[in-house]
Amino acid sequence: MSLRYGCICYAVPKKMLVHLASQSDGEEKQALLDQVHHSTHLRGRRAAASSGRVSLGKPGEKVLHRQVFDAQGRTFLPGKLLRDEDDPSTADKIADQAYENVGIALRFFDTVLGRDSVDGKGMRIDATVHYGFGFSNAMWTGEQMIVGDGDGRHVSNLAGSLGIIAHELSHGVSQHLVRGGLGVVQMAGQPPALKGEAGALNESFSDVCASMIKQWHAGQGVDSADWLLGEDILAAHAGKAIRSLKDPGNTRATWAQDDQISDYRRFAPTDDPHKGSGIGNHAFYLAAMELGGKSWETLGAVWFKGFDKLRSRSTFLDAAHATVDVAGDLHGKNSVAHRAVKAAWRQVNVLN
Ligand SMILES: [Zn+2]
């Protein structure tokens, strides 16, 4: 399962690390540039564990299974086991934050979408913290989550960011929803990468789920939500957030070189998947604002079941048709939800 996938999905786009490096010098600059080309260096990966649960939850509550490991500043995976499910909190705040945030994301998928862990079968989620030295990223490897401490100057608090952790966990969900991975392209001599429309849809799925998870955890309605991701990991000089679903590519709301788009007519197949993802992100935002209330209540199942119909090379048009169809099936043809989803994909110029 995981070997066929093997795609590394990063929370902080390469372009942002390059930009931060351009504002630095000396060792700091080199450290950031080294991380841009990190993806080939993962060592000691192991097969993902299937269930193997040991804990008993409260009645009526699904059992979670998380394990948090400490890479101790090195890059060997998974590292030393720090906290298993049901273990008491550790003396390590970052490990406990990762444990809690993985738990919140898993509970969202279970209680809101009926999804038992990323694979639908209760897969144990392994997360390695303190990965590398000053490593300014978090990622999903296809097998586990990896969380760096950040360099402390530009980027920090990755484990403490629910949006970042939820985004990465959602890559694990889409990996299992779409056979072969949504937009995962294998190229000779290179690590697998997310490409084209399907790759942008993959990133968008993670952003949309992360936004819903943040709002669900905070009990927020669509009007009071900030619709930002990564707003809690950047130093003030580095930017305000990594992405905005409300206004993709608005550098005043995010960071200096944010080039996300929300208009499908501007999409180019060679774009970074974090750029084109703004199209799907903004479609979700528009539909959610039209419906009002809580984003996950009506649209959560629509988006999840819609993306469940996609294939590894699906297009934005496929995603639009799939989510519109599901909205019609779940809420009725011409229902408010059906019309809102259709109108949203029209506004981003995917549907005519
Ligand atoms: Zn991602």
Description:
It is a single chain. The protein is of the alpha+beta class and 352 residues long. It folds into two domains: 2-177, Elastase, domain 1 (Roll); 194-347, Neutral Protease Domain 2 (Neutral Protease, domain 2, Orthogonal Bundle), CATH 1.10.390.10. It is built from ten helices and ten strands. The chain has helices at residues 2-5, 14-22, 26-36, 93-113, 162-177, 196-218, 273-291, 295-308, 316-331, 336-347, and strands at residues 9-10, 66-70, 80-84, 125-129, 138-140, 145-147, 184-185, 193-194, 228-229, 243-244. A six-stranded mixed beta sheet has the order 1-5-6-4-2-3, with helices on one face. Strands 7-8 form a two-stranded antiparallel ribbon. Strands 9-10 form a two-stranded antiparallel ribbon. Helix 7 crosses helix 8 and helix 7 packs antiparallel against helix 10. The longest helix is centred in the middle third of the chain and has 23 residues, at 196-218. Mean pLDDT is 91; it is low at 46-57. Zinc ion is lined by residues 9, 167, 171, 203, 206. Residues 9, 167, 171, 203, 206 line the site of zinc ion.
SS elements, strand count = 10
Order of helices and strands: HEHHEEHEEEHEEHEEHHHH
* Beginning-to-end CA distance, first to last residue: 38 Å
The quaternary structure here is single chain
Helix percentage: 40-55%
Quote the CATH topology of the largest domain: Elastase, domain 1
CATH architecture of the largest domain: Roll
Widest sheet: strand order? Answer: 1-5-6-4-2-3
Q: Quote the average pLDDT.
A: 91
For the biggest sheet, the summary is: 6 strands, mixed
CATH class term of the largest domain: Alpha Beta
Ions, cofactors and other bound molecules: zinc ion
